[in-house]
Amino acid sequence: MGDSSMTFRLRAVRAFALLVGFFLMGVVLLSAMAVLDWLLMTRLFTAQAAWFEGTVLTVTVLLAAAILRGLFAFLRAGRLGPVPHAVAVAPQDQPELWEQIQIAAEATGQRPPDELYLVAEVNAGVAEQSRLLGLLHGRRRMLLGLPLLTGLTVPQLRAVLAHEFGHYGNLGTRLGGVTMRGREAVLHTVEVFQKGSTRLHYAIGALYVGYARMFLRTSQSMARHQELAADQMAARHAGRDATAAALRMLPVLTGAYTHYLETYAAMGRSLGALPPVGETHGGFRRLLAARTGERLTALSAGQRPPRPHQYDSHPPIAERIAFVEQLPTDGRPDESADEPTGLTLLRDPDGVFATLEARTLPQEAARLRRMSWDDLVMARAVADAEGWSRPLRVAVARALRSSAQGAGDSAAVRRDASAEEVADGLLPGLEEILDAFDRGLLWMAVADCMPKPYQAARLIGPSARNFIRPKIFDGLAGMVHLRLAESGHAKPDIAWSGQPGLFLPESWEKGMDDAIDAAVADTPDTAPLRALLATPHCVPA
Fold first, then answer.
1. What is the pLDDT of residue 392?
2. Is this prediction's pTM over 0.70?
3. Residue 255, Cα to own-chain centre: how many angstroms?
4. Which of 12, 66, 368, 505 could form a disulfide with 201 if both were Cys (CB 3.0 to 4.6 A apart)?
5. Binning pLDDT at 50, 70 and 90, where does residue 365 land?
6. Sign of CA dihedral 303, 304, 309, 314
C-alpha cells in the first residue's frame, strides 16, 4: 500500500510539473519574442533591412496575441459562469435534497456546495470557482440532473453524490486534485487555440496541442486512479451494492432519456405543439414507471454508446462496476425493489419540472400550443399517416390521369411524378385506389409513378416490385389509419412501455397486415381489405 501511495505521489508531482510547464511555455515564448523585438529596435535595426525587421515585428506581435489569449484562457478555466438552462435550488426550497447533499459532503470530508442547480441531463457534477488551478478555493457549485433523481433510488443517489464530492478529496496528495483541475484547464485552452482565426494562431496552437497531449497522457493514469478512489468513497458512504447499482443504472438512464426526448418530448415538434406544462421533462417519470428491468435496459442496448474521449479520465463503466463489486462486504442489506426514487426528496416535483421546462425551452416555444399526451399522439399519428399515404395517392392520381388520356410514356410519368403537382382535392380515396389496383394499374403504372431514387428507377421486373412494395404497403396502411381516425374507431395509445401510435379495432389489429399484403401482391387481391373496410369500424363519422 505504501509503494502504491508513493507511486501516486510521484505521478502527481510529475504531472504537476508538466502542468506548470504548460503555463511557463507561454511566458518563455513571450519573453523570447520581447527580447527579439527589443534587439531589432535598438541594436539590429538597419535601413537596408527595415522591411524584413518590420515583418518580424508584425509576426511576433501576432504570435504574442495568440499566446496571451491562450494564457488568459488557461487562467480563467476555473471561472464559474452563469447557468441559464437550470433551476437554482436554495436549502429552504428543497431541504430534504440539501440534507442528503450535506451528509454526502460531510462523509467525504468536504464542504457542501454554495449553489445547487437542477438540470435536464443524466449527469451530476461539482465545480469550484478556483484560482491558481485550485490552490486557492472559491465558491462551489453542484449540478444535479433531474433525470438522475427520477431514475435512481435514494441510496443510489447518495452514491452519486459521494462520488462527486470524492473528486475534491485530493485522494492521496494535494497536487493530485490540482492536477485534475489542470486537465480541464488544459483541454479548455487547447479548444481556444483550435478556434484560431489566423495561420499564426494555428501554428502556435499546434505547439500547445502537442504539449497538452503529453501532459494528458502523463496524467491520465492518475485521473483514472482518482475516479476509482471516488467510487470507493461512494461505496463507503452509500454501500457497495447501492454504488454498483448506481453505476449500472447510469448508461440505462442515459439511453432511456435519449429515447424519451426523441420519441415523446419531441413528438409535437413538427406540429408546432408541446406536451402539457412540465411534461417535456416530467414525462420521463411515466416512461420509467412503465418500463422496468430488461425492457428499460433494451432502450440503451439499441443505442451506440458515446465514443470515449482519447484522454477520458473515467475508466470504462464495466471496470468501475467490477472494482466496486470486489470491495469487502459492508453488511448492509440489499436495497429492495420498491426503494423510493430520488424524486421523492423534492417538494412539489411538478412545479420543479415546470420551472426547468421554462428555463430550457427556447423563447419561441412560449407561442406553441399545449396538447394532452393523447391529443399529441393522435395528431402525430394522423400527420404520419398523411405523410405515408400521400405519395401513393399522388401516384394513383397520375396513373389514372395517364390511363384516361391514353398516354403510355412511362418515362415522362416517372420524371414528373412529384407530390406537389397534384392538388389535395384531386387525390383519390382509399376505394378509388383499390379500384385502380383491380384494373391492373398497380404494377403497370402506379409503381412507375411512385417516387424513388434515380438508381432504383432503372430496376425492372421482380426487383422493381420488391423495392417499391413497402412504400405502397405504407401508403395503404396510412390511408387505413386515416379512415379509422376519421370514424373515431382508432384511439390514441401513448404506450409508455412501447411505441406511441394508434390503438386499432381488434379486427384490424388481426387482419390488416395480411389484407394489405394481398392487395400489394404481384397479383393484387383487394377483397380481404375491402371486407375489412365494409365493417362498421370504417364508416366515416
1. 95
2. yes
3. 9
4. 66
5. confident
6. positive
